[in-house]
């Protein structure tokens, strides 16, 4: 018989909004990973300064040890969002670590130094309460045990849901906060009783390095490791990180809960609420975790502390696991009240210990009445509750049904559990080797995702890159308009609106309008003695030929306005007669009703990215091309080049694939080539005339090599138009020291930043970081 | 025989560019007008402070007297431009004078106070050299004579023209500056000899108030005036404002010129170059008019000082006159060198005096050889030169041919001259009455042109208005891109780019983008506790009806997205059922594939124009309407209302005419009316639902009456989005004290400013001035 709270379920079922709200809620994750060297030793380097002061970055801090990164997601409105958030944070941290450092993927450490050499997290202020607390823990519990890392899962119901439930289910004189306290206590009580099941299903730490601790019955494994026989989670066992005494508290009433914890503090068993290492805690976001403020303001969310890092997942936890934990908590809400037996805490503790140390052997589970039930039977009873309320409230949700089915199979068959699979991997590859391989693979995944912010792939790459940098530096991101790539970034009490990564409050409006207007741009640059190619647009033959004196004696190009392939173009690099000038205009007009006469500036095109007073990146842009090897056809060479994982289509990746369309065919034919020709070895074949990255062009980072003269010129041009963030296109002559021959082609007010961040060749420039630093300097 | 420099003419004729350059050049005007009361008395008020310090405003200063406004055009590249410039300045000054002050339109004053009560121009610093110079003049010449006002005409050839001429005509070892000096001296010499003709054709001051001066032979006229018999120009006669001694100088060489003036200074005849009141002066823009710097840097332009104010023209001078003066100077350039007789200065002075005092009688003109020639013969000889070189160099230019023909007719027939016509008017109406009527008509013209900047009618009204305000306040205006209304404003060493009047450097880029985005705007305002109507856009029926809980209990409008005429709209002002909600959505979808559900905010729409911390204007906007009189049809009432000279079409005037198109017909039909119906007296009939000024709506300035609460709200909204120049649209409820019912509909980042400057009802708000003050505060 499945014991669910039929009244609650009926109420919820009667209101489609409540059903929807039941399955939403607010989610947050906190995850710790030790930083390790390629050999699996604890990295003794400081917490990477790129993350800023750990006191201020809300997303990336250190836990107990300086070598123990803690990632904290913002509060998310769905499991999927929080999964993406922790994955993004994991990627961000992985890529920002010093070269050859990795995130250790297990809750149990790899190679660690002697107790005295384990570094406690360093704070700017030596008297920082966080530092003092850690020093207290080091004395009280030892440092080693503090290195056990895990995941905290924070959860609250949607307020609308609780309000609706309150309307129908409040007891007499009960306030809304009283009701919330009661509801969260009910869930906590369920959790306490049945947490053995969650540990069985999420535990992933059955092994540890010899010398880390001593657990009787653990077996030797390769690489000086020990494996708990049939074990699941060292961290959740009595050998894990727990209060010295079992601190039982009263879950029946909120007052009782508060008073029982107060008594533990009074007795000196713990110093403060913060030291109450219960597997689940009732928490309040207003507080600095003091019992007083919890008592006063009441419960706002639950913190589940017993989740192990899962080394089988690159980010430490599977999305299905996150959903399952949510369902587990909902089961607590929807279970019958009287199903929870009183004073079950020692029984639950015993079940937890058994499962943590030998869960894979399916030990019997002790019931409230001290009777024992077969493991699977006990587990399936709880699974059946989930199935039952899902059938009632979410009959069409196949995804959640599968989530439950997956765990159900694990309840039945221990070999399918995470712990069993981790044990298997360790036995096969060795404790260190398995985890280090996993760590390196995880790093490679992070690198492959470097330009993506998971869950924001619908936004522009430059916005995704800025978002990653924002989190890296502890800057909060609100999406104001997704389709428009409109973000608000907040650090401390300073907010900045950012649209499309580089449209910010730093630039003034009219200077953007000036950059948008080629006539105005050229005029202003020329007034500042900056060379710009003189150009004219003509629609009348008679007017066009009148401009001969203007261009006479210069190198010029005459072309139809809309040409892209060199058709109808005449280039005069030397003296030309008026007759030749007129003839060239005639040719251009034969291809378009509008023609351009422009000074020709020989040289290569470079993009300078200016922010404020600095050039933060310089890129050389080369038209789409392949280099022959004397063996492959142009088509084959294009396909090889397009294999680069950074090349994609539709601007979804930092570089674009080279196309094989009419433009490219024509460009080849002008060189007497086709896609089927085999170019000689070393010969560069261009497939486009224009150098845009968006048409398959190559980008080469030349920031460090660039002559300061041109960097100064770029900044000068940007200043001339009073721009702050500006993409300056400069043609640099074949002899770069021939400074006077250089010219500025264009100023761009919303310069692309991703092409600097992920160039075809050369170092990545962290343009996202530069933008964040620039906005919040 | 016409004596022209055939070599010059042949050179110019051979080069089409030189012909074009000959007829261009640089032009500037300086014009003085006395400020007078409606009775013709000198206005003794201070120089209007709206013009800023006279030391700093380059366009509007005072001449000798505080009551003598001096208008100075920028250097213009054509006669037409300089004509427009002086006309605009005249309009700007006219409209900025204190109420009931006018610009006296004659060179000779109206009623003036006793010598001691004539106010000398006041400067911030009592020791200002301009003040000290004026005090010197008052002592040396008396104040009264200083009130004679006139026009200075500054001219220089285009540098390209002079360079081309230099190539072919330089003498051995001659530098370009030597050449320029020589050319300008040649023109000056021609001018000195033939200036009697220019005075005859431009003189307009034959009369003066009794007591102003004494000229023998002057006749009494009505209103205590005196008229010179057959006189032309008191100011250019020996009774005018001249050096005490005739200061003859050497025009043969530049050195001679400099030395001869130096000698006059040495002799104490004048204090400095500044006091050299020659009818033409060779000048240099680098200098503060010192002889030393002229000697050093050479001549850059000519200043012609003998032009009288023409009271027959509302701006003081006809465009044809300006062109004629130009041709007169070109005649000087193109005349044969040897045609200029040596030591002709006393002869020229005598001719000048004769013509100034009795030119209408066509006195004989004395030639170099002291022989006398009949007046018309002498005049026609110079006119024939002009005709001759125009035939050679501009045979197709009918306009210039007409300019010459007009003056030729005046040479033949004195009654056609300006002086004759002015004499006639004075005799007919009286000296004071004629000039005061002229002054008032000129003011009315200025008022009718208040919203226009002559010569910039192709630009937006708001840009024209800003331009006028800029000049009023001494701010230089460069047009960077005409079609885009892109200006650069400069005051002192500070420049500001301004596009479309309100797009400036003061606003930051992303805040403009936030205003452009309704979603972002609403979100930010709501976060600042500012009420915005909640609205949703739907394309799916199923999704639309899901929003019932969001809107239930509110007043709402449901409408097809593209409706304008009320079709398919449902308004719920009270409780509505879900069924009614769904039905309204169904109706809306039957008219459009996209529908809007919006909170309905009852009340009137107001536009608040915010700049920085201030609301500078508030406008109530009322949809196009007419008020019945029980007599006329709607059509007749519309036509009456459209007669308002401020109503035009295509945004060329501040208000738009009410149309009689399908929208208006439909709107009438919804009220069971047609254009042929006669609405009862006092009944307001609306022809549009929307209140836009662009569809004939009325604008009512309510700036002063507006409740401060709403002004504060507008500023708060603008600050919330970090806007600086912002148009805030607020719906104010029927009871304006019901503050909580008000809501902000929209924030506009390029708010129209002309509708505040020229409202349908209420005072004009000088929004152009506000923008200038805001930019340069």
How is the topology of this model organized?
Two copies of one chain form a homodimer.
Chain A: H1 6-13, H2 16-22, E1 26-36, E2 60-62, E3 68-72, H3 79-96, E4 102-103, H4 129-141, E5 150-156, H5 159-169, H6 176-202, E6 207-209, E7 218-221, E8 225-228, H7 254-266, E9 280-283, H8 291-297, E10 301-308, H9 319-334, H10 345-358, E11 365-366, E12 372-373, H11 375-393, H12 398-412, H13 418-429, H14 431-448, H15 461-472, E13 476-481, E14 486-491, E15 494-499, E16 503-504, H16 509-516, H17 518-527, E17 535-538, H18 541-546, H19 548-551, E18 556-560, E19 570-572, H20 578-589, E20 595-599, E21 604-611, E22 614-622, E23 625-627, H21 634-642, E24 647-648, E25 655-656, H22 662-669, E26 684-686, E27 698-701, H23 708-720, E28 725-732, E29 743-748, H24 754-757, H25 767-776
Parallel strand pairs in A: 24-25
Antiparallel strand pairs in A: 1-3, 1-4, 1-5, 2-3, 5-10, 6-8, 7-8, 9-10, 11-12, 13-14, 14-15, 15-16, 17-20, 18-19, 18-20, 21-22, 21-28, 22-27, 23-26, 28-29
Helix pairs in contact in A: 2-5, 3-14, 3-15, 6-9, 6-10, 9-11, 9-12, 11-12, 13-14, 15-25
Describe this structure in words.
The structure is a homodimer of 777-residue chains. Chain A has 777 residues and is α+β, with helices and mostly antiparallel strands. Chain A has 25 helices and 29 strands. In chain A, 44% of the residues are buried. In chain A, a hairpin with a 3-residue loop joins strand 15 (494-499) and strand 16 (503-504). The model of chain A has no long low-confidence stretch (mean pLDDT 93). The first copy, chain A, is elongated and about 110 Å long. In chain A, helix 2 (16-22) packs across helix 5 and helix 11 runs antiparallel to helix 12 (398-412). In chain A, strands 1, 2, 3, 4, 5, 9 and 10 form a 7-stranded antiparallel beta sheet that branches. Chain A has a 5-stranded antiparallel beta sheet with strand order 27-22-21-28-29. In chain A, strands 13-14-15-16 form a 4-stranded antiparallel beta sheet, with helices on one face. Chain A has 3 domains: 6-446, 2-Layer Sandwich (Creatine Kinase, Chain A, domain 2); 451-531 and 603-623 and 697-777, D-amino Acid Aminotransferase, Chain A, domain 1 (2-Layer Sandwich), CATH 3.30.470.20; 534-599, 2-Layer Sandwich (Dna Ligase, domain 1), CATH 3.30.1490.20. At the A-B interface, strand 15, strand 16, helix 16 and helix 17 of A face strand 15, strand 16, helix 16 and helix 17 of B. Chains A, B: Its cofactor is Mg(2+); Mn(2+). Chains A, B: Synthesizes glutathione from L-glutamate and L-cysteine via gamma-L-glutamyl-L-cysteine. Chains A, B: GO terms for molecular function: ATP binding; D-alanine-D-alanine ligase activity; glutamate-cysteine ligase activity; glutathione synthase activity; metal ion binding.
